[in-house]
Amino acid sequence: MLILGIDTSCDDTAASVVEDGTKILSNMVSNQHEIHERYGGIVPELASRKHIEMILPVVDEAMKKAKAEFRDISAIAVCQGPGLIGSLLVGVCFAKPLCFVHNIPMIAVNHLEGHICSIFLEESKPDFPFIGLVVSGGHTNIYRVDDFSSYTELARTRDDAAGEAFDKVAKLMGLGYPGGPIIDRISIDGYPDAISFPRVNLQGSLDFSFSGLKTAVLNYLKKNPDSRKEDVAASFQSAVIDVLVDRTIQAAKKEGVKKVCLSGGVSANSALRVAIRQKSSEEDIEVYLPSLSLCTDNAAMIASAGYYRFKRGEIADFSLNPKAYLPLGQPTAD
Ligand code: KG4
Ligand code: ZN
Asked: Are the CB atoms for 28 and 329 separated by under 8 Å?
């Protein structure tokens, strides 16, 4: 069964054809880094305009690369949210007439569910239940995942997402956009213990907070303008990684679950991948990491999540609206 996935939630225009929720036949992503770089962050209006320009060629290319015709496609899965409303609108408004004209069912997919499902596109797939850390530019959430349709939120960020902190710190260090991959790269030549940045621990909660860390980096740079940028980057990165790893492992222990799975753009971070593997092995927990191209935004993950929704008969109708705020699963009572 072939699913065409479409994601325009943020600044990547993405389309992909996936077979049976697991086998990628094509995975096209057109990013807009050059457009947003000069602003040090995403400009929503520019993102929407670029999506309008790119959506048709990107979908076309995904279909051609997969050697698929629309009559072969069983359903079109489109990201409904969360994300930038103008960007989401482009994907949803493109999917609707495509489904109508070709008489194909439309599936609405939550972007966060997409990130979690990216692991099902890999050879090694976790059994349920597992703990899923979704860590990206817009989100830092921990879920208990009991099934494809069963997500319980265990933690969230109270302010900035981890990827947002990477991007903001890179901006204030004048490093460029997106900041995560740049900080990852230059940290290799820095000392993670050079500067002691705060690791926020919210009493009685697994929630995250990264805005104080960003301010601490800003204050440090003001007081120490000649500091080695590699050391600042590595020390900042180490503070982010410590809390991400600690909360994920704590969540696994609290839930009595022996598997953790990372997803989202920040899960491409090389030092985070090393740290979570090391800590998990010490705690006898299995760790699952998507390959780098499936960590950042893509539409294969949307097609995969869409496949499982389609199998459950969850077809969207043409009244579907995109949603900037679209939580996944239920938060726990405590
Ligand atoms: O998942 P994603 O592509 O988009 C969202 O859903 O937000 O994540 C993008 C975020 C950006 O903040 C980017 O700086 C961060 O992921 N990122 C990284 C790395 N690669 C991307 N952060 C740290 N290290 C990386 N290697
Ligand atoms: Zn994302």
From this structure: no
Q: Which residues form the pocket of ligand 1, taking CB atoms under 6 Å from any ligand atom? A: 10, 136-138, 163, 166-167, 178-181, 184, 264-266, 268-269, 296-297
User: How is residue 19 written in tokens?
Assistant: 């077979």
Structure tokens at 198: 């705060």
Q: Max alpha carbon distance in the chain (Å)?
A: 63
Residues near ligand 2 ion, CB 5 Å cutoff = 136, 297
Q: Pick the ligand that lies closest to the CA of residue 294.
A: 1
pLDDT digits (tens, 9 = 90+) for 139-159: 999 999 999 989 999 999 999
Confidence of residue 329 (pLDDT cuts 50, 70, 90): confident
Query: What's the token pair of residue 155?
Result: 């933690």
Hey, is 310 helix, strand or coil?
A: helix
Read off the pTM: 0.96
Give the residue, by CA position, lying nearest to ligand 1 atom 8: 265
